């Protein structure tokens, strides 16, 4: 019965797409509504702790739970305070949203205390140098994940793994090289997310040990667009756009040292390969902390970037609020994508050409090996040792996601191709991002991966 219903729903959606060219905005999974109702009842019965969304109260709880009291650089308390205030005033959180927010903030506060504990008890962690990293820079949904995972396939680089970005700080008592509970914790979290909203696995497929962006290291400073992609908090977004992000990136660099120390691999000192769309807004801060980094900029048709971004945000925001507004999401993420691109272009013009390279999403689809060979010439590295692992990644991704496709439609968010491309006309012309007519004899080499990561 369940399989038949699923097939009928799929057929209906396919019919709508075929007749109109549009894909209907997916409804929130029913399990989310059930979980919201159940969690609300547990809160009313006082069976689940109902901690206040209050910074001082949450700090006190974290101190009591850990027995520690030093959060390190106090800079992060200001963005956290602004974020909490915006959540109270603007986000219209449901029971799940409020539970997730409190849980996330308590986790950050505990891990800030644990981080300083490790630095105090093992000062050698911060004494370890970091080699200049290779950093992928692009807007949300521009193909940064695929490019990052191809580079991560090369064992001459270090890369973050999913469990390390979700749980970057081990608890006190942990010993490097010994049993680590964090992968299992991250796996349970991922399973919960996928059960609540299976579309998450299509939009951004991952696993506990898969290469992942360092977004969680910026979350440790309550910093970044990640929060805006989860909650409706425009006040926080506008505030952060005017702030200097350098303290958040300094802490990110400290956490990279801690992550490497926790692996028990401090002697290797390989360069990190990093990526997160937040870097688009923060390139001056990023380069002040990593002045010798090599930057790989990736560019995609802005209409696809905005549409895919809105779909991702809708997918997350409907979990945390019963009042998610797709047209508000469209307006906000059109503006946010514009700001990302404007700031990237301004900062990019001041970076020496020998420190940066530009690649196109379209070219990655057509011939990823040719693009990666060009990237490796830029890095002054021989690509040959990495190609077998890269091809293995591509084959695996293609098999896993052959029948999955992230569908979205700008009209669902009150937008259209003409409006979006008009906003980014200068940028699109600079990098030749206008859509090309499809050739009937061309088949993208990475069709399955493209569908999964679009």
Biggest beta sheet attributes: 4 strands, parallel
Secondary-structure element pattern, one letter each: HHHHHHEHHHHHHHEHEHHEHHHHH
User: Can you count the beta strands?
Assistant: 4
- The domain tally reads 1
The averaged pLDDT comes out at: 86
**Large-scale geometry:** globular
- CATH architecture field: 3-Layer(aba) Sandwich
Q: Strand order of the main beta sheet, please?
A: 2-1-3-4
Provide the structure class: mainly alpha
Keywords:
454 residues, mainly alpha, Rossmann fold, 4-stranded parallel beta sheet, 21 helices, 4 strands, 57% helix, 4% strand, globular, disordered N terminus, disordered C terminus, Sulfotransferase
Q: What do these coordinates show?
A:
This protein is mainly alpha-helical and 454 residues long. The protein is built from 21 helices and 4 strands. It has helices at residues 2-20, 30-44, 55-66, 77-90, 95-121, 124-127, 144-152, 162-166, 182-196, 199-203, 215-219, 234-241, 246-263, 283-289, 302-320, 326-348, 361-379, 387-400, 417-423, 425-430, 447-453, and strands spanning 134-137, 273-275, 294-299, 356-360. It has a 4-stranded parallel beta sheet. Helix 3 crosses helix 5, helix 15 (302-320) crosses helix 16 and helix 18 (387-400) packs across helix 21 (447-453). The longest helix has 27 residues, at 95-121. It starts with a helix and ends with a helix. 41% of the residues are buried. Mean pLDDT is 86; it is low at 1-21 and 442-454.
């Amino acid at each position: 019965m369940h399989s038949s219903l699923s097939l009928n729903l799929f057929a209906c959606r396919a019919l709508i797409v075929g007749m109109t060219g549009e894909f209907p905005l997916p409804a929130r999974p029913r399990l989310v509504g059930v979980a919201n109702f159940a969690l609300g009842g547990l809160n009313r019965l006082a069976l689940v702790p109902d901690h206040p969304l209050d910074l001082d109260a949450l700090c006190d709880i974290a101190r009591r739970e850990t027995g520690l009291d030093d959060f390190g650089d106090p800079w992060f308390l200001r963005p956290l305070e602004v974020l909490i205030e915006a959540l109270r005033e603007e986000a219209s959180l449901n029971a799940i949203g409020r539970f997730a927010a409190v849980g996330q903030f308590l986790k950050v506060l505990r891990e800030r205390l644990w981080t300083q504990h490790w630095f105090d008890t093992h000062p050698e962690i911060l004494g370890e140098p970091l080699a200049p990293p290779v950093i992928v820079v692009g807007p949300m949904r521009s193909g940064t994940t695929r490019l990052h995972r191809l580079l991560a396939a090369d064992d001459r680089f270090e890369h973050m793994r999913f469990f390390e970005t979700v749980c970057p700080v081990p608890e006190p008592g942990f010993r490097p090289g010994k049993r680590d509970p964090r992968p299992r914790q991250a796996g349970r979290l991922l399973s919960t997310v996928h059960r609540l909203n299976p579309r998450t696995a299509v939009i951004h497929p991952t696993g506990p040990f898969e290469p992942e962006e360092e977004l969680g290291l910026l979350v440790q400073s309550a910093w970044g667009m990640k929060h805006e992609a989860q909650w409706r908090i425009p006040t926080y977004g506008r505030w952060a756009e005017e702030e200097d992000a350098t303290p958040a990136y300094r802490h990110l660099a400290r956490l990279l040292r801690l992550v490497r120390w926790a692996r028990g691999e401090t002697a290797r000192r390989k360069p990190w390969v990093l990526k997160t769309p937040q870097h688009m807004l923060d390139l001056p801060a990023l380069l002040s902390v990593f002045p010798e980094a090599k930057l790989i900029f990736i560019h995609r048709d802005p209409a696809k970037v905005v549409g895919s971004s809105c779909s991702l945000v809708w997918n997350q925001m409907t979990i945390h609020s019963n009042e998610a507004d797709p047209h508000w999401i469209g307006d906000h993420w059109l503006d946010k994508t514009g700001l990302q691109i404007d700031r990237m272009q301004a900062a990019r013009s001041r970076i020496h050409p020998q420190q940066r390279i530009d690649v196109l999403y379209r070219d990655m689809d057509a011939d990823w090996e040719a693009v990666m060979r060009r990237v490796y010439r830029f890095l002054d590295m021989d690509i040959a040792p990495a190609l077998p692992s890269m091809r293995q990644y591509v084959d695996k991704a293609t098999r896993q996601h052959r029948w999955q496709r992230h569908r979205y439609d700008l009209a669902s968010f009150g937008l259209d191709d003409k409006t979006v491309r008009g906003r980014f006309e200068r940028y699109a012309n600079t990098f030749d991002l206008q859509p090309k007519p499809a050739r009937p004899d061309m088949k993208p080499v990475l069709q399955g991966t493209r569908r999964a990561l679009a």
